[in-house]
Amino acid sequence: MSITNDDNDRHQNRCEKMEVNDNNVRSQYTIGSNDFILVDEVGERPKKNVKEKFHEFSSCLNSNSKSVFTYKTITKRLPILQWWPTYTTADCIGDLLAGITVGLTLIPQSMAYSALAGLPPQQGLYGSFVGSLMYVFLGTCKEVPMGPTAIVSLMTYNTLHGLGPVYGTLLCFLTGVIQLIMSVVGLGFLIDFISGPVNSGFTSAVAILIVTSQIKDLIGIKAAGTTLLDMIISISKDINHFQLGDTWLGIICIVIILLLRRMALCQIGPKDVKEQTTFHKIMNRFMWLIGTFRNSIVVIVSSYVGYVYITSTGHDVTSSETPPIPFKVVGKIPSGLPEFDLPKFSITRDNGTTVGFFEMVSNIGSGVIVLPIIALIETISICKTFADGKPVDATQELLATGLCNIGNSFFHAYPGSGSFSRSAVTAASGVRTPMEGLYAGILVIFALLFCTPYLYYIPKSALAAIIIAAVIFMVEVRVVRPIYRSKKSDLIPGLATFFACLVLPLEIGVLIGIGLNLVSILYHAARPKLLIEVHKTRDGINYLMVTPDRCLVFPSVDYVRNLVMKQSLKRELPVVIDCSHIYGADFTAAKVIEMLTQDFSKRGQALFFYNLKPSVVAVFEGVQPKGFITYYHRHDLDQLFQRWKQQRQQIENSSAD
Q1: DSSP codes of every residue in 215-275
Q2: Alpha-carbon torsion 76, 80, 85, 89, what sign?
Q3: DSSP characters over 331-350
């Protein structure tokens, strides 16, 4: 049963008159909630035949296909069209400096990460320029440098188990395809389950892991490991072999980088730019330029130091022997660009048997599913870290990362993503737009063709110093206090993610954080808050007003029913459920409401539903509950209680007879 009023204007006038005339009465009682969310129309929809449905479907399909090629959609999927029209010379200078700095870091890093993945060093270089070039057109975050990363490289090693470069290229292709499919079907929303505290915990833990992983190069020892404990144990085993030259060079580089970073933030003269003289402006610009170019300056100067040392010893740089100098250098880098070729979907063994595509995928295992998700989480975490409050388009990042990996696979690369360490270097170098990737990619290509002999002299400790000096500012200590002041319980998933990522594999740590978030969401969904008050009508009838604060779905409906039953039996009053905040329900909720109305009907106790959305009414009426009564206007409640009293009186009289 439902009492409604189609004449909304007339009803509004009546309500206004009632509120004016009954000002003194209003303080004595309250009926329902002032929130009115009725948007659906009550009534059956006209039935359509197959032809009309087909015409409606074709019209919808035609409309959607046209929307794909609108300017808004094109600029959304090609973000370069948004910032390119306003690209300035200052942006070009900032991106050029950042691109050179990242490129000089990317070349030796990619080779080291390739070795970590158990693949030839040149395969890391092959994945360092195509993705960077493609991300310029597809990427939304200027701080994301595409290429090999420590996390993805380690997961590649765990996935391939020494299967070889061919499998690495196929894994890169499949990773890109899976990410592309996720973007097409709109699964980017899954990243929304990574809350702010979880993202902060993950970012901070990764920053600490990166710093710890760079200690080995900073002090010139050998170490490995995937967790913080593994790294510390590995470092402690070889700490006695630390190199004094690497240590001093690394510490000096860190100090210089931090000082130059501070220089970039300093200004001489008045704070107001209009009051500064020409000398002040030139000096401030010069200090900003030197501070922004600090990473490149350290690389160039330390490389020259390495060149002087190696030249003085007469060491043959073409040999595979380590030069006899106080610190370690990057060493020989293979030159030349890879050939463009499709990934191999089948291979022939030495005995002449052929391994098909599905068998190759089977050999790779579940890593082909896990790795794309972890790579995406790494990229999205970087985007959120440097978003500055702006929304992150996870679907577009899925599209960009997927296409970059597919493009890399055509040049014999292995999977890559956005790098935490290089993103910190990019941000610290004064990047302006994603155009930085173009300059970094060109530098990698140029280095592969012409400069590999000179890259030989870059000290590993200098590169470690650049990364350490950049990522130490990614540890988000400052967010702990605001989270604590805002909502203390949010520290639980954040801290759990932080410690889990340190002591466990990163993917497990992230899943723990996401799992805790889901548990919190499900708990609040299963335990809605109920406002229970005793109100009085104009006729002096007391009743119980129950107001749930959210929708009724299967985890929560039994909890709500038990509370309503408990309070109604305790107070023995009619019950009105204010449904203003109930915007959805399911079949389980409908069955429980049916049982609730039956229980009230058997006891002869009134139960009414106020302001229930018609779409929810349709769900409840689908099970045909007995005694299910709704109303939408305040004055209707008096009529319902009068009718209920009359029916109750009739039942009592018939029982007496």
Answers
A1: HHHHHT-----SSHHHHHHHHHHHGGG--HHHHHHHHHHHHHHHHHHHHHH---S-SSGGG
A2: positive
A3: -----SPPPP-PPPS-EE-T
| Strand-pair partners of 355 | 347
The Cα–Cα gap between 105 and 103 comes to: 5
Give how far the C-alpha of residue 16 lies from the chain's centroid of Cα atoms, to the nearest Å.
48
Return the residue matching tokens 């900003």. Answer: 288
**Does residue 486 sit in helix, strand or coil?**
helix
Q: Please, which pLDDT band fits residue 28 given cuts at 50, 70 and 90?
A: very low
Phi, psi of 336, deg, nearest 5: 100, 150
Cβ atoms within 10 A of the Cβ of 21, count? 9
Residues in the chain: 657
Among 248, 150, 237, 157, residue whose Cα is nearest residue 471: 150
Cα distances (Å, whole numbers) of residue 102 to 54, 218, 380, 467: 54, 19, 19, 10
80-114 burial, b at 16+ Cβ within 10 Å, e below that, comes to beeeeeeeeeebeebbbbbbbbbbbbbbbbbbbbb
Tell me if 299 sits within 8 A of 104, measured CB to CB: yes
The first and second tokens of residue 327, run together, are 């610190």
Report yes or no: 614 and 582 within 8 Å, Cβ to Cβ. no
Residues 604-655 have pLDDT tens digits of 888 888 888 888 888 888 888 887 888 888 778 888 888 887 777 777 777 6
Helix (H, G, I), strand (E, B) or coil at 578: strand
pTM: 0.71
CA–CA distance, 179 with 133 (Å, rounded to integer):
18
Q: H or E stretch including 46?
A: none
C-alpha pair distances (Å), 470 with each of 208, 329, 428, 463, 474 = 12, 21, 7, 11, 8
Token pair in block for residue 636: 């209707």
* Residue found by looking up tokens 């009068």 in the block: 642
For residue 546, the one-letter residue type is V
